[in-house]
Design brief:
about 230 residues, alpha/beta, Rossmann fold, Alpha-Beta Plaits, six-stranded mixed β-sheet, four-stranded antiparallel β-sheet, 7 helices, about 30% helix, binds ribulose-5-phosphate
Length: about 230
Amino acid sequence: MSKDVQKQRAAEAAVDLVQDGMVLGLGTGSTAAHFVKLLGARVREGLQIRGIPTSEQTRILAEKEGIALTSLGDEGKVDLTVDGADEVDTAFRLIKGGGGALLREKIVASASDHVAIIVDEAKCVDHLGQFPLPVEVVPFGVRVTYQRITELLGVYGEGEVNIRLRTDQFGEPYVTDSEHLIIDAAFNKMTNIEGLASSLDSMTGVVDHGLFIDLCDTLIIGSDNGARKLDKN
Ligand code: 5RP
């Protein structure tokens, strides 16, 4: 069966977590888009929720689906966020940001009472790092930041590390919704994930990065036969 069917199954299972009156964080990417469309169908049947989109792409889709939108400024906190991921390990640590929305995704996830991550089976790995780690940086001084990240990754990666500035379909630097750039760092094997995350957290010029640690409460893995729901703890 295709990955897309597995994504759809995971999204269907996530809709069961939604309750009337909730404020929902709406993730970004193709798996999260399945969830937003299913949510839209429930809203048209009478479900009352308010959504906080994690990207302009998701905002446009949610509006099209007739989902009432709100903001973190108006709500202060979020009951449940449903989002996708690029990789998930057995400790529920994630790599996110393949779709370029990691900053808003992390802000919304960190303001949420509960975060459910929906993935297809191929996203589940023993060791994070096969998927290049996205690092969001400010454009000013990007060359210096790029060099600093390269040096840091030598400390936290085993073997060759390839880093590159993300480009769009026209070969121009990819610009995020918050007008930053993204550097993608491909590891052979990532070592000391928490150490890498905290070093990136404190690096000047880095806005945020795609390592999501202690932010996933429930993992929903879509499979050919349905979906498995795993709760952390
Ligand atoms: C966007 C993300 C996405 O959740 C991640 O890239 C997964 O995308 P998809 O569901 O399309 O595989 O982090 O920034």
